[in-house]
Amino acid sequence: MSSRRATTIATAITGSLLTASFSAVMILSFAASADDQGPGSSKGGKAVDAAPAGVKLTTLLPEKISVDNSSHKTALTATVKNDGTKESGDLNLLVVGFDGLKVNSVQGCSAIAAKDLPPGSNSGFKCSVGTLTAGKSKSYAVDATYDLSKAGKICLPVMSADGKKTFWQQGPVPFGTTNPSPNAPATPLLLGTDNKPVAPGGDTLPKTGVGDDVLPLGAAGAALIAVGAAGLYWSQRRPGRTLEG
Predict the structure, then answer these.
(1) What is the percent of the chain where pLDDT is above 70?
(2) Sign of torsion, CA 70 204 210 177?
(3) Which of 109-126 are b and which e, b meaning 16 or more Cβ less than 10 Å from the residue's Cβ?
(4) H helices of the chain, where?
(5) Do residues 200 and 182 touch, judged by C-beta distance below 8 A?
(6) Distance between CA atoms of 97 and 151, rounded to whole angstroms?
(7) Under a CB-based contact definition with an 8 Å cutoff, are residues 55 and 47 in contact?
(8) Other residues' Cβ atoms within 10 Å of the Cβ of residue 21
(9) Which of 15, 55, 147, 216 could be cross-linked to 100 through a Cys-Cys bond (beta carbons 3.0 to 4.6 Å apart)?
(10) Whole-angstrom Cα distance, residue 214 to residue 192?
(11) Measuring CA to CA, how many Å separate 44 from each of 25, 64, 213, 239?
């Protein structure tokens, strides 16, 4: 084989390898960006009842969502995760909306009847998570609407399948903005931020409950969560009863 021909073949092979490597990097980069839903946060979450030994449950919400200023529609992902070393046992995740944030649907989940919603909430869905093995998580696509003239909150309790215990609860935690953009196509909202409505007198949040930071609990004192509480409103209102969608 002549030296010129050998050089030509080597150059062609090198070029092919570079092209293949570049293509692989492009494909991997695209796949990563396609699956990237942004950072999740457990802000506003806390443990309630003790979870089984070796089980550590948390939930995650996106740090940022966007509300269409015309349709008021928004979407987010709710995630429940077992950061422990053992299986969780059967779980339910509830997705509950308050004030200006109304949950319209949660993929694969059933609506909670209006009579079973806690005072102050406007919507809710129950998701049968099943058992989460150690280190595993499960995510749900949530479609909602947000009335930007109000504050808006969401709550994610993680309950035992029989509804008697609440192992973890995130919220009710607000989504909102202190810099509204009424003339833009959409308004970005941040998790853990009280909403500042765009309206006359908008410097003051609307009063939709008993104070800005207090969930209306009702005469029985039942709460979605309180320090030392035995569980959720539903379990206190109907002891032993499992929610049915």
Answers:
(1) 65
(2) positive
(3) bebbeeebbbebbbbbbb
(4) 3-35, 233-237
(5) no
(6) 11
(7) no
(8) 10
(9) 147
(10) 15
(11) 38, 14, 12, 26
The position carrying tokens 């093995």 is: 133
φ/ψ region of 163 (left if φ > 0, alpha if ψ in -120 to 50, else beta) reads left
Q: How far apart are the first and last CA of the chain?
A: 77
Encoded amino acid at 118, one letter:
P
Q: Per this entry, what is the length of the chain?
A: 245
Prediction pTM value: 0.70
Q: Which residues pair with 126 in a beta bridge?
A: 94, 110
Per-residue pLDDT at 189: 95
**Which tens digits make up the pLDDT trace of 169-224?**
999 999 999 988 888 999 999 999 999 987 554 444 444 433 333 333 333 233 44
How is residue 20 written in tokens? 């293949």
Task: Check: CB of residue 189 under 8 Å from CB of residue 147.
Answer: no
Angle, CA of 65, 244 and 168, to the nearest 5° = 50
